[in-house]
Amino acid sequence: MINDYKCLLDPYQYEDIDEESDTEEDFSYFEEHGSVETLPKKRTMDDRHSERKGKMKILALDTLQVVFCCSVFCLSGVKVEDLAMARNLFQEKTKSERSQCIIDWIILSSNSRGSERQWIVGSKNVCLKAWRLTLGIPESTFYTIQKQVLDGKVTAEKSGRPLGSVEPKTLTALAWLQDFANSYAGFMPDSKQLHLPCCLTKSSVYSTMVSELEGPTSQCISLSHFLLVWRTELRHIAIPRRSRFSECNTCVLLKNEIESTRNKEVRKQLMQQRDTHLKQQKSEREKYYKHAMKARRNPDKYLSIIMDAMDQAKTMIPHFTATPKFADGMWKLKTHLLGAIVHGIGAYGYLMSFLAFLVELKVFRKIKLSFLMVGHTHEDIDQMFSRFSIWLNHNSCKTMDSLMNGFQNCYNPKPTSIKTCQVYNYSEWITPYLAPMSGHSRHHVYKFKLENGKTKMVFKEWTTTKAWRECEGSDRYPLLRLPTTQPKLLQPNFQDLDKVESSILGARKFIDKKDMIWWERFFQEKHNEELEYEDDDSSFKLFELARFVAQRPLPDITTFSVPEIVVNRDVMPPVILGKKTKPAKSQPIIMEEGLKADDFVLTNLEKYSDEWPQIGKVISICGHNIHILWYKGSKSTSWSPCTMPISGQRGKREPFTETVTRDQIWKSGFKLTNNGYLPKSVKDAIDRY
């Protein structure tokens, strides 16, 4: 009888039994005793997780008394209370404490003869197997620890990590993903979420992380762990299936092509194009934050402004958190929220003319206008709008005053709300003085600067583009001349005011008495304004600003002495080996005579100061002016001709040529080697220059 049921009652052999080989006789024993539970055929996710963690299923206490452990059934005479106490005391310990407890038992349980050991449960001696089953110690764990004790080990090592600790490579992945989202994601205007471009996938983001972090000493977490960290720690970062706003055309096209193609090489090329596109939009955003930081550090010298408008449907008043049924067809007062973040303190043609106007009035010395990439424009101003939108979801605003107070209290640092009372008809006023403009919507960066008393406008495609390009056409400047008059004020539109007033009176029972007083005063003021409206011929504020800047006193210049502690040495003394010798006389660089086409020249233009050396190939010579084709390369690599994109022709490029004067050339009359490298004499001349 004992031998027949040994395999069924041994918990370790029981787990290895094939469920399909069970018979009715096998289960009859369990039905008679009613205490042994069989494992379900379908395991839950928790069970699988526990098994992966290495957790052993422990037999019930009443089952232990009938388990076959040895020929004398050691546990049959032990009370259930003693079994429960022994198990609870052991299982309440940590993993390291349980290992130390087993080591202590192995050392202390040896009898005087040293060949047998005593294992005690409660007050009764039991066999080793009974002792292990009672405490819930796996057989492999016990014998592993016993081998360590025989090898002389008397203390257990602390295994695993402290509770709440995270591996360094996981922290690296978290920091990388957060930085990636800050560089590429857009702020949502009504939530805390960051939306990455829709052309990305989580697998592609992981591949980007691996490629950026790869190195001999770096280790990356697995894809499954990366997805788990993303899902649990950074849930606010998402890749939407569909963007709630206008999407970038390039992102949409790339996503569709990548999903539809089955050619691995084509997919690889498309992914490279996607990476190039995303790096470009990242560079544009970084440039914006760089300008903002310059304005914060030097508010007296720089001014950085970002502007955007909020959805008008969210700011119409009265605004209710719980919208009553009657408000569905209610006429509300439209309010337009235009946000501007000033760091440190539409019609694109009219905007550019306004900036040129500011420079020509000498309000600013120089203005740069940048447009973020279409579809990637959700920046910090949208984050401010999102906080205001969330505030509106939890608060009612039934008057203009409460709306403005809510806007000021929804964000930190607190924004300033200003209600505009006058709007000038600037576009109609400036049109006669504005040069016709076309092609200005394709570029992203413009610069306005005074030249001979007039504002000159230059442009380039991206902030990363090196060279500025000048405008073409018959007119040299965007403003033909300064206006001599001032713009007129736009007349308010009172057409639907009666409908709004009727709706407010119908909603009287939903509006507080204090707010109704505000509305009555508001309608009375507007009716009086409609009857007595007159054009205000007050001075244009921009002219007042120009006069103020012109009359502003120069700052006092105080002389003071600063002790010279840190000395900057442009030329460090050389290291001398042996006896000091007289330095060789340097030969002055002389322009070679007889400059001709196809010769190469070296220049030193200030606008290309980031590029060195500056090398061009002579195309033609016209007196003092020399037309050259720029080359790209370095002192130790080969050189090749430069190209630039053709305006208005997507994907097409042309040679990058420019006209320089003889005074701007400091060396000429040389050729590249057959492999396109600089001759040694030219390299030496560059080192001496």
Automatic annotation (TrEMBL):
Keyword Transmembrane helix: yes
Keyword Transmembrane helix: yes
InterPro entries, A to Z: DUF7869 (IPR057191)
Coiled-coil regions listed: none
Residue ranges of every copy of the DUF7869 domain listed in the record: 350-464
Bilayer-spanning residue ranges: 337-359
Keyword annotations: Membrane, Transmembrane, Transmembrane helix
Pfam families recorded: DUF7869
The protein's name in its UniProt record: DUF7869 domain-containing protein
Organism: Mytilus edulis
Lineage of origin: Eukaryota, Metazoa, Spiralia, Lophotrochozoa, Mollusca
